[in-house]
Specification:
mainly alpha, 9 helices, 0% strand, globular
Length: 282
């Protein structure tokens, strides 16, 4: 009997096919003519490949969910810090291009002196977003795979603002050349952050423009408190996310203002440190 089994096994291996018989119904093999066919190595490879693909998909989905929970809030704190420090020390909204457009328009009409950085912020922001897209395209990655490289770029840009500000003291002359250079580096860092979110987590609200987040929070609260059918399809998770962004941005503004009061140009070390944390966690 043992010899017959060995011969049969050898015959199966010579055919280049591995057969596993006697699998139960959990094996997923169909019954034909009252008998269960044997599983070939190609069938097993296909099944294992399917399960492996499902596992990878689940892992990617879990990573995206975790990123949606912590990353936007952290980035909103960073954006609040960069925006306040830029506005108070350099005279420009580095994370809020709309504010620069408003200020420039008002100053032109009233014939007041316009900060060159406020005018340059718009084309520099466009250029920085474009360069971020080119870097992402050249990397060959997509989705959450782009997160760490783009977070690293944001960190390097904010670190450059810190080093440049400590050396040149641009806050001494907010309308000077050094202040304009520092402001444009900070604008580029925020442009990278905007592009990062759109490329990696496109469903996440803006981390720097609080008007939309405040609108979402108010509508979500009103809809949830209403006893009638809600006007918009929202959930508590989206409402919580909007509130986290609002609180994070506000906390960043408060901390950055205090840091600027006591640390002057070294205040850029706060957003730089948080950007480094984002890279580590990303």
């Amino acid at each position: 009997m043992a010899q017959q089994m060995t011969q049969a096994s050898s015959h199966g291996l010579r055919k280049g096919t591995l057969r596993l018989c006697g699998l139960n119904d959990a094996g997923g093999l169909r019954v034909q003519d009252g008998k269960r066919p044997c599983a070939t190595n190609s069938q097993l490879t296909k099944d294992l490949g399917t399960h492996g693909s499902d596992a990878r998909t689940s892992h990617t989905a879990a990573m995206t969910t975790r990123s949606e929970l912590w990353l936007p809030t952290l980035l909103s704190v960073i954006a609040g810090m960069v925006d306040v420090i830029g506005f108070l020390s350099l005279g420009i909204f580095t994370a809020h291009i709309t504010g620069n457009v408003v200020v420039v328009g008002a100053l032109i009409v009233r014939h007041h002196r316009v900060n060159p950085a406020q005018i340059l912020a718009i084309p520099v922001f466009i250029l920085a977003v474009t360069l971020t897209w080119l870097i992402a395209k050249a990397s060959g990655r997509r989705g959450t795979g782009l997160m760490r490289p783009l977070l690293l770029i944001q960190f390097l840009l904010i670190a450059c603002v810190l080093i440049f500000s400590v050396i040149t003291k641009p806050s001494a002359d907010p309308h000077g050349l050094m202040a304009t250079i520092a402001a444009m580096i900070a604008v580029s860092a925020m442009a990278c952050q905007f592009a990062l979110l759109r490329l990696t987590l496109p469903v996440v609200p803006s981390t720097a423009v609080m008007t939309g987040n405040l609108t979402n929070a108010v509508l979500g609260l009103v809809d949830l408190s209403s006893r009638t059918r809600p006007l918009i399809e929202s959930d508590r998770r989206r409402l919580t996310g909007a509130l986290h962004l609002l609180v994070g941005f506000f906390v960043g503004c408060v901390l950055a203002t205090a840091a600027l009061t006591y640390l002057a140009d070294w205040a850029w070390s706060l957003p730089a440190a948080l950007a480094a944390v984002a890279v580590a966690l990303g």
